[in-house]
User: Fold DUF917 domain-containing protein from Actinokineospora fastidiosa.
Amino acid sequence: MNKIDVADIADIAKGAAILGAGGGGDPYLGRLLAERAVERIGPVRVVPVSDLPDDALVLPVAMMGAPTVIVEKPPAGDELVRAVAAIEGALGRPVTHIACLEAGGLNSMTPIATAAATGLPLIDGDGMGRAFPELQMVLPTLDGIPCSPMVMVDEKGNTVVLDTVDNTWAERLARGATVEMGCSASIALYPMTGKAARAALVPGTLGLAARLGRLVTECRAEHRDAARAVAEEMGGVVLFTGKVVDVARKTTGGFARGEAVLAGTGADDGAALTLSFQNEHLVAARDGRVVASVPDLICVLDAETGEPVTTEAMGYGYRVTVVGLPCHSRWRTREGLALVGPAYFGYDHPYLPVEHLARQS
Assistant:
């Protein structure tokens, strides 16, 4: 992938929403923002992580807040361009490349729109290989790369620049500011050199998203099982097929938190699956037994179309298939699990890779 044109965006949004593990924002809204920018300005140049020069200034951008709110309060359109300019002012040098902070239907699209609007190249990579709910939950944190200076911008014209002692404090202070901004904000953060980015970013995320999106589109046209095809493509497993019979969801502290309960259908008839989420799906438990857990990806796809279903969109009556996909290998290290493992989110079960749990069932 060396450029992104309008025709590419739908598949990238679809695939990125799968990688978002239920979070990362609404793919339809993100698609509209990216398509409008590329239609107006032209294709976005894409460069692989490996091609970054040592002295590049790489800037990830994203939306922060509760996905349930962002759907109702979308950005005005110029927030991230203002955030890039504010980072340049804080650092006293120009940004050379835009990057995705995470994979997700919205947060893989806003960097496309930002790259188009600024004329800067976009990196084919991201900071997680999936989506996570908190700012410090990125691979750059494992490499000691600071989140700040971090810029937050809202649709009202407010700009906040944070300079924090560590990345956890950046999350705490930014989360409070996000709540005051109406539970959503546009952010630019983790400015890093090209040398640092080559080591810290997950390469090929946008290309992978495009491939997954095309796979789902092809499966739908050929009446194939898209969820199973995605699982096979990613080395994952199909966890459950069923109907959503209950969703308890609330927006609190700048997050969408809750649980969804699925009643099994077909081969899973008589069983129940509970999905616990904080923006992203964190744990899937079948009849009380954990079958997938953060940091692995728990992805919900429409059982008929294969379209990804985000946590804010899931509702009663949806017929879905739940897929477990392995996370990036660095999240499975001791340091990675300390940052994003089940214990961090308050769960007392040990982490086991989703493919190992599948063999135990």
Observations:
- The radius of gyration is 19 Å.
- The first strand starts at residue 3 and ends at 4.
- DSSP finds twelve helices and 17 strands in the chain.
- The mean pLDDT is 95.
